[in-house]
TrEMBL record:
GO cellular component: plasma membrane; side of membrane
Keyword tags: Cell membrane, Glycoprotein, GPI-anchor, Lipoprotein, Membrane
Protein name: Variant surface glycoprotein 1125.2568
Classification of source organism: Eukaryota, Discoba, Euglenozoa, Kinetoplastea, Metakinetoplastina
Listed transmembrane segments: none
Signal sequence, start to end: none
Disordered: annotated span: 376-420
Trypanosome variant surface glycoprotein A-type N-terminal domain ranges (all copies): 2-327
Species this chain originates from: Trypanosoma brucei
């Protein structure tokens, strides 16, 4: 169980590191198509990490604790009788031995009781590679099969009988006056000592994990808890495989990023994956991972003493510091770009004439823009003109009239006056408006 939790936490860390490395890679390619791709991948790794942590927090840590508690209780039920039986100092301890009525006493050794695999000591928490190979879905496969024939489990009487496994008669541990009132389980119910002078019962190896009313309940409870305890090879801890668009978590990310209604799915989803990743095959993600791992982080960034590739940087704190460094670089570059664009825009605005004629409401016709509203009672309409435009028109009209007047005045005789734009005033030809 310790091994499984360790493996699961390693997977969560891998997803978190993948998210950070994707973000660093994206900052280094800001403004490119690659940035779009890595943004999706970073979100994918983030979702995977979140699901692992949530599964542990909401159910699997509790399941792991429950399995450990029930297994520890069962081990306690097993250990004491085993130590007692192994300490019997005569030739009559035939417990779990198949040597028969004349067999030798089995000796308790590390990991063994006689010739039977049965560790007595708790495994070290540091032994992360330990596996529950003797406890599977079909039961406790580590247990020795029962041998029902003859007196293989226990000698009925005589000097070879193990008196600790009998409570009756002169050869039992209870003698006649203190025999058991009823059958009694030891080793958590694996062995049942009878209240008669008969052979012990041993639970079948393929029955200890099943429910049999009132029997071997600690074995059954431990097995059930162990079977539902978290395993790194099950969902949501196991890695997704297959084509990119077929991965359920990638689908969730794409539906969140491209929040269309109805949600993107089917062929549209497949086409979006092809657009982003230039293909839909799983190898496209591997190509991305290879590209990320080859990125070189220069010495000095995040305290790195030498240039290192991202593949070599797996400390989360350093990855966060590297990301912060590149965020500052991109932020500074973006700030300069915005300032340059703003400066250019201000220059263009200052030199370009205001398009006053398009301002059809008085509230938008501002003198600061070089415009003037030419109506005293209207607040809407075609009254916004460039300042000085009317004066220029009036000046132009006056100049034109002056020129025309000059032309008319040159006609000194009425008989020479033929222009339709002039009128004879009795002495000279003049423009009608000046009469």
């Amino acid at each position: 169980m310790t091994h499984e939790l360790t493996q699961i936490l390693q997977k969560a860390k891998t997803m978190r590191r993948g998210e950070l490395k994707a973000q660093i890679f994206g900052l280094g390619h800001a403004g490119t198509e690659l940035a779009k791709r890595v943004a999706v991948i970073a979100a994918y790794f983030s979702l995977r990490n979140k699901q692992i942590i949530e599964a542990l927090e909401t159910q699997d840590i509790e399941k792991a604790i429950d399995a450990a508690a029930k297994a520890a209780y069962l081990q306690g039920r097993i250990d004491d009788p085993l130590h007692l039986l192994a300490a019997v100092d005569n030739t009559n301890n035939l417990y779990l031995s198949t040597t028969g009525a004349t067999g030798n006493k089995p000796a308790k050794t590390p990991g063994k009781l006689g010739d039977v695999d049965f560790p007595l000591s708790a495994p070290s928490a540091k032994n992360k590679a330990a596996e529950l190979s003797g406890i599977t879905q079909v039961g406790f496969t580590i247990l020795k099969k029962d041998v029902p024939s003859g007196d293989a489990k226990q000698v009925a009487s005589g000097t070879k009988k193990c008196n600790l496994l009998s409570s009756v008669n002169g050869q039992g541990f209870g003698q006649t006056q203190a025999e058991l009132a009823g059958a009694h389980e030891i080793l958590g119910g694996y062995i049942t000592i009878k209240d008669t002078n008969t052979e012990i019962d041993v639970t079948a190896h393929n029955k200890a994990h099943t429910v049999e009313s009132g029997k071997h309940e600690s074995w059954t409870a431990a097995h059930a808890a162990i079977m539902v305890s978290p395993k790194h090879t099950t969902t949501p801890y196991i890695n997704e495989t297959g084509e990119i668009h077929s991965r359920s978590d990638m689908t969730k990310v794409l539906q969140a990023v491209y929040s269309a209604k109805p949600q993107i799915s089917g062929t549209d989803l497949e086409n979006k994956v092809i657009e982003i990743f230039q293909g839909k095959e799983a190898k496209k993600l591997q190509e991305y991972e290879d590209a990320v791992n080859q990125v070189t982080i220069p010495a000095g960034v995040a305290g790195l003493e030498t240039d290192q590739t991202l593949a070599a940087v797996n400390d989360e704190d350093k990855l966060i510091a590297i990301r912060a460094f590149y965020e500052q670089q991109v932020g500074a570059a973006y700030g300069k770009m915005v300032a340059t664009i703003s400066e250019a825009s201000n220059k263009q605005t200052a030199t370009a004439p205001a398009d006053c004629g398009k301002k059809l409401k008085k509230v938008y016709c501002k003198e600061s823009d070089g415009c003037k509203w030419n109506s005293t009672d209207k607040s809407e309409g075609d009254f916004c003109k460039r300042k000085g435009e009317d004066e220029q028109k009036a000046q132009g009209a006056g100049q034109a009239a002056k020129e025309e007047g000059k032309k008319c005045s040159e006609k000194k005789k009425q008989e020479n006056f033929k222009s339709p734009d002039c009128k004879w005033d009795g002495k000279n030809a003049k423009i009608p408006v000046l009469l």
